[in-house]
Amino acid sequence: MVGLAYRYTYFDDNTTATANNASSNDPSITHLPGVFVQDEIILNDYNKLLLGARYDYNSIHGNIFSPRINYKWNSANKRNIIRLSAGNGYRVANVFTEDHAALTGARMVVFEEELKPETSWNVNLNLVKKVYTTNHIYIGLDASGFYTYFNNAILPDYETNPNEIIYGNLDGHAVSKGVSLNLDVNWTNGLQINAGGTLMDVSVTNDEETYRQLFTERFSGVWSIGYTFREFGLTLDYTGNVYGPMRLPLLGERDDRPEYSEWYSLQNIQITKSYDRWELYGGVKNLLNYTPPANSIARSFDPFDKGVEFNAEGQVIPTPSNPNALTFDPSYVYAPNQGIRGFFGVRYTIN
Predict the structure, then answer these.
(1) Residue 230: CATH number of its domain
(2) Residues with Cβ < 8 Å from 260, sequence gap 6 or more?
(3) pLDDT in tens, 40-59
(4) DSSP code at position 313
(5) Nearest CA among 148, 5, 154, 33 for reference residue 87
(6) What is the pTM of this model?
(7) Into how many domains does the chain fold?
(8) Is residue 256 part of a domain?
(9) N or C, which terminus of the chain has less Cβ within 10 Å?
(10) What percent helix, strand, coil does the chain show, rounded to 5?
């Protein structure tokens, strides 16, 4: 399979990202012609090989070449599958639309340079095992190992200056690697259980210094338990997530907030009644009523920093009313601020 592609992009978000000066914007216009080729090779009934390559010419960033290879093996009964993939990719970042939550705080947005596209090399190994027991229980296992190496990664820098978010391409690289395991079990009586966990290490190497990336947890888990009461037309769903500690941005050495978040879990329950095309549903979100610590948003009572004093270099000066030299800053928040709450709804399906 071969093909040609062309994309025209006009981007203007009326923010610092496309600002020409203090009074006008400079919208980004991109022409992106490209050509791609892909060949699926069926070696036999159990082995397939997929080879592909793409060439694009970005009118701003120049030539971009992206090769990829995929291999798949499956057993005769299709209950065992192995997939191996590797390839290269690129991405042009639109900072505001992708990271707009960070820009809603009190920090000044600074671009160190003209941002280059992020590029990556990735390898992924996936194993799938399907088991059907004699009493008709289905068990599915899905395990993966992944490794991604990023060049020109664009990560917000909250730490160089506590009053700024600095964007620029890394003078180094970033790595995301880890393993994941998912379990899916279905019983004939209507009970379904799905659970999974991911253990990963996300690191950044900048100016020959390696450190853990902000807002990335080492472990995350998810589960879903559902049961259908067929005689009553009722379905009960219990879902949840669990997150390990994340490294968080602090506002200097005097900031007394923990550098790492705590373990936390968000859990929900829902019951659904079905009748013909109608569904009535209701439940509770955030069953454990988990919210971040009250001091997560620094000086939330002073969003315009009216009670903050600065020196000639723009650095915060400790004062009796602000001994930790903090400014208003919501970037530390890592979990939803909404506690436990109920919900109810009606759904109608039109065929």
Answers:
(1) 2.40.170.20
(2) 245, 246, 247, 248
(3) 999 999 999 999 999 999 99
(4) T
(5) 148
(6) 0.82
(7) 1
(8) yes
(9) C
(10) 5, 55, 40
Long-range contacts of the stretch 258-262 (C-beta < 8 A, 24+): 261/217, 261/292, 261/334, 261/335
Question: In the predicted model, what is the mean pLDDT of residues 21-44?
Answer: 87
Q: Is residue 273 part of a domain?
A: yes
**pLDDT, tens only, 139-183:** 999 999 999 999 888 888 877 777 778 888 888 899 999 999 999
Greatest pairwise CA separation for the chain in angstroms: 77
Contact 299, 309 (CB under 8 A): no
User: What domain range includes position 268?
Assistant: 38-348
d(CA 35, CA 53): 9
Residue 104: pLDDT band with limits 50, 70, 90: low
Asked if the structure places residue 153 within a domain, the reply is yes
Q: How far apart are CA 328 and CA 277, in angstroms?
A: 50
pLDDT of 128: 97
Amino acid at 88: N
Q: Which residue has the higher pLDDT, 101 or 268?
A: 268
Asked whether residue 254 is assigned to any structural domain, the reply reads: yes
Beta-carbon contacts of residue 303 (< 8 Å; ≥ 6 apart): 106, 328
Rg (CA), the chain: 25
- Those residues whose C-beta lies under 8 Å from the C-beta of residue 255, and which sit 6 or more positions away, are 298, 324, 326
Q: Which residues make Cβ contacts (< 8 Å) with residue 145, sequence separation at least 6? A: 124, 125, 178, 179
- Confirm if 215 and 244 have CB atoms less than 8 A apart: no
Residue 30 near residue 18 (C-beta atoms within 8 A): no
The torsion region of residue 310 among left (phi > 0), alpha (psi -120 to 50) and beta comes to beta
